Amino acid sequence: MNIRKQISRFRSWQKEPYRYSDKGMEHRQCANCGHEFTGNYCPVCGQKADGGRVTWRWVWKSIMNLWGMDSRSLPYTLWQLLLRPGYLISDYISGRRQMSFPPVNMLFIVAIVYTLTNYFLRIETVRLNYNEDDSLYYFFKAIDWLQNNPGWGMMLLTMILILPTWALFRFAPRHTRHTLPEGIFIQLFMATLMLIISFIIFVTSYRMYLLIPLYYYCCYHQLFGYGFWGTIWRLVLCFLVWIVLFIIIISIAIVLSDIIKHGFSFSDIVIGSFVIIVTLLIIAAAILVFGYIVGKKQIREYEKQ
After folding, report:
1. Which residues contact residue 220 at a Cβ distance below 8 angstroms, ignoring those fewer than 6 apart?
2. What does the pLDDT look like over 93-140, one tens digit per residue?
3. DSSP string covering 245-303
4. Within 10 A of 93 (CB to CB), how many other CB atoms are there?
5. At residue 36, what are phi and psi to the nearest 5 degrees?
6. Where are the domains of the chain?
7. pLDDT tens digits for range 62-96
């Protein structure tokens, strides 16, 4: 088989990896109540059709059930997240969730493994030097907490992308008019993926840092269906808004830290942060409105055709 056929088969698998058999239509007898039926569950007592003698496979499935994995394997979902990220997310928000591990549980487990691996490999993180006398003591303390809880930290960082993704990819060829609740789950998957990529980057001494923009492009291209340039310029604007919103959040955190430490007052920190916040909010709003209008105009032209 030549390389072109292998690539074609891989792309076909990316779009449609699931193959369901017709075993559910076989004639069965329930091991619990003896009722004869066809399907995956007994209509009388509700027991699964694969019930029977205990085997090693049953032991393994019982262990997986303990962690909430059941038939939705965590390793298989992570494997799909690496090889077909956008299509996997598309399946999930479209309702095809049976073979996908729950994204909230997945992020939680990956974050625990990430933290333990960092501890045993002694991967160094940036340490901030501060004490209780610093005016921004509570701000630095919050930053330290996020570093020590990478799952929450990565989730909060990716959640900033919910609004720009919604506005700039609102009228995409695929998942047109996707909702903000769907955006939450999109970013939960992305947070898990970015934790895995971050670990790869740390292990390879930052040689693989290009994986971050590459995976974001592949994911958004597969998920929303824009072409190369349509995906690129929207992603650039997405991350520009992300930077703006991140600075706004940092400015608000600095103001709150100063207020907690010294009480409410019109100090230079508060006034300067307020000016920065208002200016950046205007910039972010202008970018989002521009992307929204362009996307809406394009979808109207497409619908006319």
Report:
1. 86, 165, 169, 226, 231, 234, 235
2. 988 887 788 898 888 888 888 888 777 766 555 666 666 666 566 667
3. HHHHHHHHHHHHHHHHHH-S---HHHHHHHHHHHHHHHHHHHHHHHHHHHHHHHHHHHH
4. 19
5. -90, 135
6. 27-66, 74-304
7. 666 655 555 557 888 898 999 999 999 999 998 88
